[in-house]
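note to self — DONT lose this again. spent like an hour looking for the file last time. sequence + predicted structure for the chain T wanted, 718 res
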Amino acid sequence: MNHDFDVISAARNWRTDAVDTATPDQIISSVYSSDVLTLEQLKARLSKPTFKSLQATLERGATLDPSIADTVALAMKTWAMEKGATHYTHWFHPLTGATAEKHDSFVSPNGDGSAIAAFSGKELIQAEPDASSFPSGGLRATFEARGYTAWDASSPAFIMRHANGATLCIPTAFASWTGEALDTKTPLLRSVEALNKAVTPALKLFGASEGTRVSSTLGAEQEYFLIAEEYYYRRPDLVMTGRTLFGAQPPRGQELEDHYFGAIPDRVLSFMTDAEQQLYALGIPVKTRHNEVAPGQFEIAPIFEDSNIAADHQQLTMQVLRNTARKYGLVALLHEKPFAGVNGSGKHCNWSMSTNAGENLLEPGDTPHENLQFLFFTSAVIKAVDEHQDLLRISVASASNDHRLGANEAPPAIISIFLGSELSDIFDRLESGQGGRGAEAGLLGLGTSVLPPLPRHAGDRNRTSPFAFTGNKFEFRAAGSSQSISFPITVLNTIVADAVSALAAELKAKLDAGTDLDTAVAEIVKATYSAHKRIVFNGDGYSDEWHQEAEHGRKLLNLRTTLDAVHHLTDAKNGALFEKFKVLSDRELAARQEIMYDIYFKTVNIEGETTEYMARTMILPAAVKYLSELHAAGGSKAVRGVAAEVEAAADELFDAVQALSAQNAATGGDEVHEKAHHMRDQVLPAMSAVRKAADKLEKVVAEQHWPLPTYRQMLFVK
């Protein structure tokens, strides 16, 4: 076994015993990115001309030179085999929302019966998976199966380890034979380039150098639940759908508010440590771990990276969490709402823009009211979110996220921006012509001399806002915990590129007319904020008053369900936007809409049939068996009373199951759009009626007869 793997093994069994010779700092330094083919690794293995050619692609966006592929492939294969890899795979992001891989061996037979390890530039650059077996929205059919994966040189190759070896994973894009994007990565990469092309001309108006490039940056928080593996396999609903379709509320949920930031249980902490070490080896900069609000809920969060790298890393994070949990007798649940009555799980996307010199364009500095560049780009974000609130809502739309949005720290379906008191005051003053700075941060006194005064932010936090400014970035809180972040970030990049392009054109026109920079920017910021301030809301996003004001006073969209939202994806303005920036063609956009309808229909259909199956084969038989036992026990008042309760709930459940069965058998129409609406309007309400009756039964059937692990067990037994 090689030294690198020894280090990783040691890190995964991190101990503080006296016998350990390596410090945690040494372990982290040795492990971090040890399973990633970094630029430094490539530089050491490539000739100077080859490395410079590759570097031009990575750092300046130059077209990839295919002639260097064989050299890079040899270096990649040698490095991977030194790490213990026997196979390689093109690792890509199809429109399932997950990742895909097909493993090929490095072994290449010789004619003399021997074999060598081989990996060519052609194999690096391109592979040919079956495109018809992935969702394509009509872009591919079974008789049109050809698709291509293409090496994404901007994302480093990495090693994925398993119990008996390792695989070289090569990040790739996935496209059809006719050239359409069949993945989430290709539009994301296009949107990154669109943002760069829009923002760099604007920066030059502020004096930026010719070599400046801009990319979006992202840190994606990941919330998840952990339950004991034994309970998971006894719950067909969790296995089949990822969420509990039944479950009476326990006497205690999250009411005591004692789980958030509480002491992490030992088994969970061991799991977290193991997962973190694997993520470190993959170069994923995880920073934070803690208990979340709901019992059994936790969070892991990284620091910022370029958004396309962050999207890759987010998919890997979900995979590592799922795989590692099983080693500890746990199951990681990434569904947005695995348990009713407690907080759901999100994936908060902390988004900003940065230059290749490391300048954060949304950093206000110590005097944001004097930071013209910051105010310019922030007003562009405000404009973008207001004009394209529909796209932001669509980007997080799914059947599973519909259960989460609108309560328990999840933002409402109405998109709005939280700026905080200081930034709102600055924009309000600019709009009114006052200028200057109003709200001050100052120091927060804690009332005792033994505690130091703390710097107080000028604005509070707002947990109900779907899009909140949080100091030097915007936090898009509406993304769901199980989804890929690629499409939400593609949308964000594109709509901000559009807004910046428009404002930069205005600014250039003013400067060309002789207006000085300060005055021109102030005029543009004032006009932009005045036109789009309806999207800014710093209050309680859950209140009925806000919903009334948003819909009727401010005329903001309230797209409550996925089907309300997805309908707008192919609106003319959206097609024109994506076409303008070459992010998605009309055909690619229509395909994604079709896939969203299809996935919604199939998700709810699976849930409906699972609900019926569990009610018929598990819950009703348990109720009947318990009733038989009660009837055999005699005719006391208590027995008669309990039997009456059980019988009434069982009859209610039986009738509800019959109604659900009828809706499951119906289709609502032949088109997937009609089927999806049937699921929302008929099947989901029928499922709710079944659950209501079943949850009543859970509260009156003897525990030894109840066939399912309860919320009390799943949420609190760790």
